[in-house]
Amino acid sequence: MLIFELSKKFPKEEIYSLTDQIRRSSRSVSSAIAEGWRRRKYQNALVNKLNESESEAAETQVWLEYAVKCKYLDRDIGGDLHRTYDNVIGKLVSMGNNPDPWLLKIKYP
After folding, report:
1. Residue 105 lies in a domain
2. Which residues are CB-neighbours of 8 under 8 A, at least 6 positions away?
3. What is the CATH number of the domain that holds 87?
4. How many domains in the chain?
5. How big is the CA angle at 45 (ends 30 and 104), to the nearest 5 degrees?
6. pLDDT tens digits for 34-93?
7. Which of 8, 54, 76, 91 is in the most buried spot, having the most CB atoms within 10 Å?
8. In this structure, are residues 25 and 56 in contact, taking their beta carbons and an 8 Å threshold?
9. Which domain holds residue 78?
10. Is 79 within a domain?
11. C-beta separation of 67 from 81 below 8 A
């Protein structure tokens, strides 16, 4: 939500490019996690969605770098957000490499 709020201040000429891209990728991080969570009875489905979320988080970092370099976003705020995404990516990689604790165990009679 912070990225959404900050991107409201981006120039109007960026509305269909950088603004749209950074909003889309940042929202996709949590939505892919939610999809994976609902599919957690299948290891491959969970890991796939975690991987998609990781990719979207990395893409968001790229757009953050552009926003800072174009001076649409303060360097310190951009750096803080980039580090936050590094933390999220680390957790997603860890979960993807060891999905067992997150899997829904189905018990059949």
Report:
1. no
2. none
3. 1.20.1440.60
4. 1
5. 90
6. 999 999 999 999 999 999 999 999 999 999 999 999 999 999 999 999 999 999 999 999
7. 54
8. yes
9. 2-6+17-97
10. yes
11. no
